[in-house]
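Sequence design from tokenized structure. All designs in this work follow the same two-part layout: the structure record, then the generated sequence. An example of the structure record is given first.
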């Protein structure tokens, strides 16, 4: 059975895949919340299943916030370490993913604040090509002329600058909405806002970006 290695040096991940049927438990029949409740009771194999399910998503989310793959891996490791350390306080009052992203968002925001003066030009590009698909959400995947490429580069730099300048909650909400494809309710649960307040938050964020980027429309 797979186990989770938690050491003083941090989270080392699942040591091997956990069978979907083990020790009389059919993991496929359990919700994430039910699995986490088992983890709370001491079943670390359940935590390995949650890691396998969410690790890639969390690494991608932290990469969007840090723009550094090594940092994203470290932050994702810290997210799961914090989840594990908090297992005794877990309550299935909300979706497990909501709880997980709340921890990830708080960690990402704190990291961004702590490294504000260390970040270089490689930060957040809302229309930088995705590492897996090679396409961008805002720019058609076509061959660009030199002039078009220069304009696109300027636009990307401007987007990076203005997204990073957004208030922390707005920045986090935009990243969750645009890249994690989370809906208003899910984002609101992470940020502890009502659905209407989340819509208002995103409206203000996108309105600010549109205004600041109008020269690139």
């Amino acid at each position: 059975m797979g186990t989770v290695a938690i050491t003083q040096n941090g989270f080392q991940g699942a040591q091997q895949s956990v069978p979907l049927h083990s020790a009389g438990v059919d993991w496929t029949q359990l919700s994430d919340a039910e699995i986490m409740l088992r983890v709370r009771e001491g079943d670390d194999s359940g935590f390995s299943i949650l890691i396998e399910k969410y690790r890639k998503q969390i690494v991608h989310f932290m990469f969007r916030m840090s723009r550094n793959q090594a940092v994203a891996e470290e932050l994702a490791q810290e997210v799961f370490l914090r989840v594990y350390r908090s297992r005794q306080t877990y309550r299935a009052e909300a979706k497990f993913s909501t709880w997980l992203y709340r921890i990830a968002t708080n960690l990402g925001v704190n990291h961004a604040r702590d490294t504000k003066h260390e970040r270089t030009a490689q930060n957040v590009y809302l229309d930088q090509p995705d590492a897996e698909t090679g396409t961008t959400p805002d720019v058609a995947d076509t061959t660009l002329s030199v002039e078009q490429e220069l304009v696109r580069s300027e636009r990307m730099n401007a987007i990076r600058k203005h997204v990073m300048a957004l208030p922390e909650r707005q920045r986090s909400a935009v990243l969750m909405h645009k890249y994690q494809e989370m809906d208003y309710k899910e984002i609101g649960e992470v940020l502890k806002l009502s659905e209407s307040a989340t819509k208002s938050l995103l409206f203000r964020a996108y309105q600010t970006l549109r205004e600041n980027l109008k020269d690139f429309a």
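Residues 124-217 form a domain with the Arc Repressor Mutant, subunit A fold (CATH 1.10.10.10). We note this feature because it recurs in several other targets discussed in the main text.
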